[in-house]
């Protein structure tokens, strides 16, 4: 892209410059880590296409992560990141695996970084990216040395917070964009939205849902088919029925598994009322209900009883196509939107 020009492409390159420099990619678009989906094939294809792929470590052991990083490096010489979940019991070992491979970017998800993890990642020379759920926590993360932030709204697929992307962007970008690169995620399906967030000060964006049906994605054909058929209103957040039984909200396509989960909560709450089960056991039953459910849907193709995590932008996914084509469309739409700004 010619970043001196006043064309839409030039404007886009200028607005993405900081984010792309930070990531070491051509465009400041990240494919957010998706457990089971974001493995060697999707990640390398994304980085090879000029974007930034991120491996989802999820519940992998350090040995499996080690193999996944090695396999990804064999498929791309471009930078990519690794997403680690903060509550993983072997977090320090996973960080050590990333350090051993000289991974350039580590993304910490699933809560505030536990003691020592920020220092360990920074000491390896990697750049650290964290999710910032509120402005106050974002400032705290920046003070603790985090290099970049992702702000993710509740339109996103997977585990979500309570606030929409548009509100988070308005609250956070004016305060934070000058301090560290901020990447906006959640509900982005087209380039026009990317242009809008860049105009508001974002360094770049992170998309997940839009990349699930990439040709290179190993998701089961039935998982991809469910995405292609679904509209925005099919991607619903899980609901908590009883204050005593906490449910971490997850956005996924409506299916029989979701209905059975509601029934399960009712059943467990009733057994609590009747004294048939103790509180700890009841909470554990709810927490464990979805264990392995994403794998069941992504890998085994059980889209009725597994968890088909998807964001509201799923309605904009209408076919399977190479990741380079998806990226090119996003860039074309964003550039066209910025071109119009001059008119
Ligand atoms: C199937 C699926 C699995 C996901 N798994 C993870 C994960 O393991 N770790 C994580 O940090 N985010 C995860 N996410 C969130 C994505 O990384 C990304 O931030 C999100 O999809 C962006 O919003 P969008 O879906 O509206 O594009 C997942 C999302 C989806 C759709």
Radius of gyration: 20 Å
| CATH C-level name of the largest domain | Alpha Beta
Arithmetic mean pLDDT = 96
Strands of the largest sheet, in order across it? 1-2-3-4-5-6-8-9
* H-E order: HEHEHEHEHEHEEHEHEHEEHHHH
**Unreliable residue runs:** none
Terminal-residue CA separation: 20 Å
Which ligands appear in the coordinates?
A: flavin mononucleotide
Q: Percent of residues in beta strands? A: 5-15%
- The percent range for helix content is 40-55%
Shape from CA axes? globular
Count of separate DSSP helical elements: 13
Name a few traits of the molecule.
343 residues; TIM Barrel; 2 domains; 8-stranded parallel β-barrel; 13 helices; 44% helix; 13% strand; binds flavin mononucleotide
């Amino acid at each position: 892209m010619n970043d001196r020009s006043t064309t839409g492409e030039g404007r886009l390159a200028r607005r993405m410059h900081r984010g792309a420099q930070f990531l070491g990619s051509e465009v400041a678009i990240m494919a957010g880590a998706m457990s089971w989906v974001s493995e060697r094939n999707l990640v390398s294809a994304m980085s090879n296409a000029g974007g930034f792929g991120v491996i989802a470590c999820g519940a992998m052991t350090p040995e499996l992560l080690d193999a996944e990083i090695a396999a990804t490096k064999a498929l791309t010489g471009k930078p990519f990141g690794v997403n680690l979940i903060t509550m993983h019991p072997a977090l320090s070992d996973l960080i050590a695996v990333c350090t051993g491979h000289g991974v350039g970017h580590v993304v910490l998800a699933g809560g505030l970084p536990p003691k020592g993890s920020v220092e360990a990642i920074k000491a390896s020379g990697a750049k650290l990216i964290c999710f910032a759920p509120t402005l106050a926590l974002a400032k705290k993360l920046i003070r603790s040395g985090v290099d970049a932030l992702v702000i993710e709204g509740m339109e996103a697929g997977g585990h979500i917070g309570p606030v929409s992307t548009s509100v988070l962007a308005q609250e956070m970008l004016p305060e934070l964009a000058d301090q560290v690169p901020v990447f906006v995620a959640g509900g982005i399906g087209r380039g026009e939205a990317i242009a809008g967030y860049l105009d508001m000060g974002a360094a770049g964006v992170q998309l997940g849902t839009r990349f699930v049906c990439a040709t290179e994605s190993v998701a089961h054909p039935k998982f991809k088919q469910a995405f292609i058929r679904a509209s925005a209103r099919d991607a619903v957040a899980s609901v908590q029925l009883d204050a005593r039984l906490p449910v971490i909200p997850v956005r996924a396509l409506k299916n029989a598994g979701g209905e059975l989960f509601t029934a399960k909560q009712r059943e467990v709450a009733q057994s609590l009322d009747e004294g048939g089960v103790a509180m700890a056991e009841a909470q554990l039953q709810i927490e464990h209900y979805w264990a392995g459910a994403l794998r069941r849907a992504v890998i085994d193709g059980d889209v009725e009883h597994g968890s088909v995590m998807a964001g509201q932008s799923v309605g904009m996914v209408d076919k399977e196509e190479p990741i380079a084509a998806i990226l090119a469309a996003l860039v074309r739409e964003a550039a066209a939107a910025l071109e119009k700004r001059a008119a």
